[in-house]
Design goal:
single chain, alpha+beta, Nucleotidyltransferase, domain 5, 60s Ribosomal Protein L30, Chain: A, seven-stranded antiparallel β-sheet, 10 helices
Length: 345
């Protein structure tokens, strides 16, 4: 994410998302009734005497809309911002959907910019300097390639191997399978860490092949043993902790680690609280060390007050994405939980 302009007099901040992760941050940044200004395409008005004017081509124009709804989908590379037009050369008051993709600049005007908003922008800007973590979870007959994005784990491809039903001479088939996986991974490799994981020994063969073919990233390849392959194996590895500075600093790794700490505390009857009412009581007592809030809960007015209460008591907070496993586990506790300094009540 790039900050292009900021004006405290008009409450306007202009941003340029540069990745799908940034679109997810923008989705969480926007609230209903915000004003958003961006370049859009709309059919030009044609005035005349015809009762049914001819269909015209869409033209490029700058529009400002009042936000009514924001939609983000993992499978798309566009953010949909729905609302009514308040500024532009035509159609004032009519409905429009702004389609924002990586590279598209948007200006946002809020009635009030809150700390949680600036925290979101700061996080997006910092994340731009961190490489994405790439995973290959592999076993004898299947490999799953996935990437850790700020919004969660995204499955990229699944490659399966058919050992032809033979009980002998299966080595060539395995070599061909590993070569195929390397071919799928190669276009995705840049400077990001690559985690190769799974049960058995195929993962070592794959890691060796990647290092041989791409020596420039050899020191970025790590191998982990897990009890499962596929996405389940990747989630298993995330819960255990992956090691390595860049990997552990990825947003999804930190969120997973924090939620795992919470569930460990719950299992040991330690210092924890969950459920909005209980967490509020803990926060008002100054007992909250780390507040965990699901991103879908941040717009709640009570949660906004809770964040401020925790900050005043010098506690910390973490917004957890609802689009990966750690977020779904937090959601099962009501979307709001905390690790405490001491027991309350």
């Amino acid at each position: 994410m790039k900050i292009l302009h900021q004006d405290s007099r008009t409450n306007k901040v202009k941003l340029r998302p540069e990745s799908i992760d940034d679109l997810w941050h923008l989705y969480n940044l926007l609230d209903v009734d915000d004003q958003v200004y961006a370049t859009a395409y709309r059919r030009k008005e044609e005035k005349g005497d015809k009762l049914r004017p001819e269909r015209t081509d869409k033209v490029r124009m700058h529009l400002g809309i009042r936000v009514g709804k924001v939609e983000f989908h993992e499978s798309e590379d566009r953010l949909r911002i729905l609302g009514s037009i308040e500024s532009g050369p035509q159609d004032i008051g009519q409905h429009h959907t702004l389609m924002v993709g990586p590279g598209d600049a948007v200006a946002i005007v809020k009635p009030e910019w809150k700390d949680v908003h600036f925290e979101r922008i700061k996080r997006a800007v910092e994340a731009s300097d961190r490489p994405t973590v790439l995973f290959v979870a592999i076993e004898d007959t299947e490999a799953v390639i996935a990437a850790a994005r700020d919004y969660g784990l995204k499955e990229i491809a699944t490659i399966t191997r058919n050992p032809d039903g033979k009980m002998y001479d299966s080595k060539p088939s395995e070599d061909a399978f590993v070569e195929e996986v390397v071919g799928k991974v190669a276009p995705l490799l840049e400077t990001q860490p690559l985690i190769v994981l799974g049960p058995g020994f195929t993962k070592e063969s794959l890691a060796r092949k990647v290092r041989d073919k791409h020596p420039e990233i050899a020191d970025q390849v790590a191998v982990l043993s897990t009890g499962q392959a596929g996405m389940a194996g990747i989630h298993e590895a995330m819960k255990r902790g992956l090691g390595g500075k860049v990997v552990e600093e990825s947003r999804i790794a930190r969120e997973t680690k924090a939620v795992e700490r919470l569930f460990t505390a719950i299992g040991a009857d330690g210092l924890f609280s969950y459920g909005k009412q209980h967490v509020v009581l803990a926060a008002e007592s100054g007992a909250v060390d780390l507040l965990l809030v699901l991103d879908t809960s941040v717009r709640d007015i009570e949660v906004e007050k809770l964040l401020k209460t925790v900050e005043r008591a010098r506690g910390e907070f973490m917004i957890v994405s609802s689009l990966h496993e750690a977020g779904r586990r937090l959601e099962s506790l009501g979307g709001v939980a905390a690790l405490l300094r001491y027991k309350v009540g």
